Amino acid sequence: MAEARSGSLEYTPTWVVAFICFIIVLLSLLAERGLHHLGKCLKRRQQDALFEALQKLKEELMLLGFISLMLTVSQAAIRHICVPPALVNNMFPCKKPLEKHDAPKSSHSVIINARHLLSTGESPDHCAAKGQVPLVSVEALHQLHIFIFVLAVFHVIFCASTMVLGGARIQQWKHWEDWFKKRPSQKGTTRRGHAHAHAHELFSANYEFFEMHAGGFWRRSVVISWLRSFFKQFYGSVTKSEYIALRQAFIMSHCRTNPSFDFHKYMLRTLEIDFKKVVSISWYLWLFVVVFLLLNVGGWNTYFWLSFLPLILLLMVGAKLEYIISSLALDVSEKRNRAEEAVITPSDELFWFHRPGIVLQLIHFILFQNSFEIAFFFWILFTYGIHSCIMEKLGFLIPRLVMGVLVQVLCSYSTLPLYALVTQMGSKFKKGIFDNVVQSTLEGWLEDTRNKGESTSEAHRIEMQSTTPESYNVQVMESENP
């Protein structure tokens, strides 16, 4: 008991306490000031979408701080919870070695148990007097606390790196946008010659697009089209002819009066807006973490089998997006056969459940699941070591890491750029079609309209209450008896 008291704050040198507090406060202030200056930088560059994503990141950090506070404050109460031994004698992450009941405990195990009890602040007979055992130790709560923090950090890093790499891939399409929007500036015959050459190049690009996706009978087969879409996501996921064709379809559907609309800038703006949703950790993602921690039982190899989930979902999403491009080309081909207007028609019916937003939700889950896999690996590595039983065998470990890297690279350079382009083929345009100034003006106008509508509804409700049958009868009686 004296040893436990000597390790408390009462018998800790004041310079140690002051020094530790100074370091913690300094690091916290540096992080807060860094995020503040980053926000000011984004504001100066008018990156409102990324600024909102930064605000969302701050909310996630505040949630982590609250979780940390709850674990710290409640650990004193949790460590005194005692349960029957049968409740905590199964479903371990590691298989428990068989114990020989008649063999005396070694001095090493006795020392470990004594240290464990001292670290948790429990007396040896706290739960033993009741014939029970502690529900969880303070050490386990501390390790769980660290895991939640590591998971959130890895999720933010993975999402940010995916958006940066995907945005860099989309930036490579900028010269296609510039080529499409270029107009001959010369006069006379030279100008007509340039216009003719530009029109010929545009016709060639469109012909290449339809020939690639709808040329020949075998390309029109649903099975062949799905197989081709599946493999195409690994090489040249978006070509110049596809970009030009889908850009024309968007312009004709939503910006017919503005053929010089900067479609490329619009895609980047919508991607920044979507980043705000992707960087957050929704409730169902936290629920997934809870379910995984429940099923991470030794011998089930849950960690290994779960690592296939993000890769399978990512391949499904990539194949679906590629198939939508092929479906648009096949639809135009069928219109030509029916002697109808052969134009690409964007539609929500091309997407799962007629909802293009489902693709973003799947990408959100894929990135979180992949970051969860990597975060769990590094947490186990630095907490228990490479030879921990939770790590399982090397034959299970290497494939998990390879799939994690593959998912990150494929999502950054193929799936995310595909999503940014193909989801513009929905029936409606996205919020990013307006610049930041117009968005702010529209949001303010909608807010004013909503407030005015609520005021009008309230006045109408009061007026209706004053003209109820009862009040109407009173008014009639007063008029008849002046």
Automatic annotation (TrEMBL):
Compartments, as annotated in UniProt: Membrane
Keyword list, A-Z: Calmodulin-binding, Membrane, Pathogenesis-related protein, Plant defense, Transmembrane, Transmembrane helix
Gene Ontology molecular function: calmodulin binding
Transmembrane regions: 15-35, 61-81, 144-165, 278-297, 303-325, 358-381, 401-422
One annotated Gene Ontology cellular component of this protein: membrane
First-listed, main subcellular location of the protein, grouped into a coarse class: membrane
Pfam families per record: Mlo
InterPro entries named among the record's database cross-references: Mlo
GO BP annotation list: defense response
Bilayer topology: Multi-pass membrane protein
Domain comment in the entry: The C-terminus contains a calmodulin-binding domain, which binds calmodulin in a calcium-dependent fashion.
Entry's family note: Belongs to the MLO family.
Its job: May be involved in modulation of pathogen defense and leaf cell death.
Cross-referenced PANTHER family: MLO-LIKE PROTEIN 1, MLO-LIKE PROTEIN 13
Protein name in the entry: MLO-like protein
Organism, scientific name: Arabidopsis lyrata subsp. lyrata
Organism classification: Eukaryota, Viridiplantae, Streptophyta, Embryophyta, Tracheophyta
